[in-house]
Amino acid sequence: xxxxxxxxxxxxxxxxxxxxxxxxxxxxxxxxxxxxxxxxxxxxxxxxxxxxxxxxxxxxxxxxxxxxxxxxxxxxxxxxxxxxxxxxxxxxxxxxxxxxxxxxxxxxxxxxxxxxxxxxxxxxxxxxxxxxxxxxxxxxxxxxxxxxxxxxxxxxxxxxxxxxxxxxxxxxxxxxxxxxxxxxxxxxxxxxxxxxxxxxxxxxxxx
Length: 207
What we know:
Blueprint (H helix, E strand, L loop, with lengths): L2 H5 L2 H10 L16 H7 L4 H16 L12 E5 L1 H12 L6 E5 L24 H7 L7 E7 L4 H15 L3 E7 L5 H16 L9
Parallel strand pairs: 1-2, 2-3, 3-4
Helix pairs in contact: 4-5, 6-7
């Protein structure tokens, strides 16, 4: 939240899209990352943080703005570890989050990894979250995935997730752009992803 609504001017971008009719009026709730240690503790596939988003943060927001309770009109979005949080939130709480926008998801994440700064063993076989999605969720989701061509193993891992989501019956689209793991790429792709998920045309499954 501190980055997107502060330094990157996401609010101005969304205002322009709403004024042009590309997006409906919406409420954005964006918690701050605080610092690296807090980010590592909260993000990824952490059940307590998903509960905070679904039950505490949305309830707080509903007390301040007119907020829909329809999961089909609610998007949970994130980048990198935040994308893992978004994907995990959709899997655990499809009753609150019917749409997931995951950019450059850190699919190397799995339970039990060492803290920031320590060497992380490489992923062998199916990424942990891909396996969780392959086992099914309580309700179908609409998911959009973004990944850059220069993000190394994340490209193949994102394709594996895309295939698992489709096989599990979710509605999923995927964009692979000529870029890397950075806000310069995510900014435009975030706006495009929101239009794809919430715009008048909705999301069409990719071939």
